[in-house]
Amino acid sequence: MTNLEAVATERVCTPGGESAAGLPTGFELLEPRDVPLGGIRAMSVRRTLPQRARSFVGAWCFLDHYGPDDVAVTGGMRVPPHPHTGLQTVSWLFSGEIEHRDSLGTHCLVRPGEMNLMTAGRGISHSEDSTAATTVLHGVQLWTVLPEADRGAAPAFEHHVPPVVPLDGGEARVFLGTLAGSTSPVRTFSPLVGAEVRLRPGASHAFPVDPAFEHAVLVDSGALTVDGVDAPVSHLLYREPGATSLTLTVTGDVEARVLLIGGLPLGEQIVMWWNFIGRDHDEVVAARARWQAEIGDPDAPAPGFGRVEGHPAAPLPAPPMPELRLRPRA
């Protein structure tokens, strides 16, 4: 999935931002904004990262939440080959099925309860399409920043099916890091956690967490509080480092389903534009030029983004750069 909105503009984000009125110290509530990804029948997503109030949660830098969408109406997900640099992409579904192809030669489906993780590193290209078997598409797409020491890493792909972890009143699937006694084997380049949690009506569960991490909870469905703070549906409730546990409590009469993410504060500045992450404006300009040259020249020399074999659509050209220089986000 790409980072392109209707107009490709930079968002300058301030560290911490301002919490919504009435929230306890250390919490921030990030409201989603609707973003059409392009086309006449644009697939619409609810984006909570990045935004002016907050750029990161640990190394998590991008979160799109979409569906449940009737693909007969929306057309589903249709993202032709496009590039990435300096990040990892995480695909997680609640319903539907997505076909992934990339320039490493990977051809893999992702279904609910499974994770596709792609490391872009110095450069990769991939495509994502909902399959003909999909009637309702519902899930999240997330990105994490590769830290300075690893941003030129070799591109890679992993598919992981995390085990179901029983909880009092529910269950969890830990796809990155460690939570509730379950540890994912998937490689990350900075300390992170990512999990889907489901809790039945009336259930409450306290998760021990690393106090050095910052955390956030995205509510997909149900009425929920996090340490007594209301977390509305489709919002991202952030909690700063220092907590040794997070208590999720279902306050409604239907099951709650949430995504819990976290990690050590990044401590770096980045420039993120379209599908590229760099450390300054000129790096992004160079990555864009490299992609444009490669898709225009079938004999472009390596190292490059590579070709996505087997996809019927032509690669997506990069949008024009904005007129102003991109400024790093802290």
Structure in words:
The protein has 330 residues and is mainly β. 6% of the residues lie in helices and 43% in strands. A hairpin with a 2-residue loop joins strand 20 (224-226) and strand 21.
Radius of gyration: 19 Å
Determine the number of helices (DSSP H or I, runs of at least 4 residues): 2
Q: Bin the helical content.
A: under 10%
Strand composition percent: 35-45%
Show unreliable segments: 6-20
Q: What structural class results from the helix and strand content? A: mainly beta
- Spell the H/E element sequence: EEEEHEEEEEEEEEEEEEEEEEEEEEEH
Q: What overall form do the CA principal axes indicate?
A: globular
Q: How confident is the prediction overall: mean pLDDT?
A: 92
Give a short account of the largest sheet: 7 strands, antiparallel
Tally the beta strands: 26
Order of the strands making up the biggest sheet: 1-22-19-24-17-14-13
Distance between the termini: 24 Å
How would you summarize what this structure contains?
The chain is mainly beta. The protein has helices spanning 71-74, 281-296; strands at 27-30, 33-36, 44-49, 60-70, 78-84, 87-95, 98-102, 107-110, 115-119, 124-130, 136-145, 156-160, 164-167, 170-176, 178-179, 182-183, 192-199, 204-208, 214-221, 224-226, 229-231, 236-239, 245-250, 256-263, 271-273, 276-278.
